[in-house]
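Slide 14.
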Amino acid sequence: MAEDDDKKPKPNPSDVPPNKALVLEPCERPLDPGRRGKPIKLKANVFRLNLIAKQSWFKYTVHTFLSPVACSRFQTTPLTTSALPFPRQVQITTVHETKKPRILTKELRQIWYALEDTELSGKTNHFGGVRVVYDGRNACFSADTLPGTFLEIPVELRSRGRFIITLFNPAEIRPEELNKWASAKPVSCHQGDAMDALAALNTLFIHCLAGKDFPSTKNVFHIQNPNDIPGLDPRLHAPLDVGGGIQLWRGFFQSVRATPAIEYPGLFTNVNCTSGAFYKPGNLVEFIKNFLGRRQDQELNASTIDDRDRIYLKRLLKNVRVDAEFNEKTKHHGRPIKEGITITSARTTFFFDSSKANKDDPDDKGKEISVEDFFWEYYGVRLRQPHAPCVRINERVSWPAELCSITPGIKYNKKLNSRQQEMASNAKYQAMAPRDRMRAILAVGNESLKIATGT
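Slide 15: predicted structure.
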């Protein structure tokens, strides 16, 4: 009988007569919603901004370039190199560079902050006492007009030399247009002024942050030292080593947004915690030891690095910026690595010093000298680890790795390997308890963003 029942065709719901069809009734809702139970208080990572602007703002176009005096320093005669006869396997390289340097985006802010320091200290008065905020690219904003429609300001930067900052093309911004655009009422407004005013507000908040923290994007900032911000727990916000010379840093995201919604119209600033991977700052030899899994007290020898690790190091260090200090007068900051590390050590890496060549003999290539002897002869630096490899800044320039250190704040844009992801997961670094996250947001809002959070 059971088999016969299974063979019977099942009824189709569409064949059921209308009078016998199932009736779906909605779930019963409370008559007085939101009145029962215990009241709770919610805190969000969004803060309302009250924009009270009684006068216009002004936007200026900014161009920064090397002064002609600074450019002339790089028009020197380069040291020529020549390949040594085969089969001698040595690295042919020079130490001097003659190519005109390019101004980096990070250096644009450093140049501007150098100008701002002279203005605040009273040494110069190019702005006429008006505070100006800079977006790090090609625009700045002020609450009043500057003295003149075209300003050409010289700035001295110790690490790079002399620069010229030009401010021109002033444009008036009416901030009341932003209030109209963010209101719930359909009020006509000038959208161009509203967008410029919104950009000015975002620049105002990030201007000081970009000077002391490390921006990885326009609105994301990472903190290397959590002790700089009161209220942050150093145990939760200290950098985490995940191996391979990579660290995880905590940071925060900030942006000003307009919400022309009916329920909650107005301007708001959004603050949230985040984390990112960075190259571990410090000496380059220690970085290579960390990557190879060597002990810190173990001497690094270029001949003991196999080809597989050298190729991976070349990919890992490509475009990573390093600082180098040869002596008190010769310092380099933020130079990118283009060619990885050398096969030979500083003691066995040779090149021809053309400064000692006979000018009357066109075939004279100069004296053959090692990198170790060159730094001792020209800079007075005696290398402590002459068997360590050199780092190749480009095809013509190589520096001893022990004299180089990775610039702090270099973002690691590649994907973490499985071991690094496992270490970050075990430490629960990328996850924060809601209470700790809110405390960090309030600390950042009060100290760094200067937001009055209230209760």
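Speaker note: The mean pLDDT is 80.
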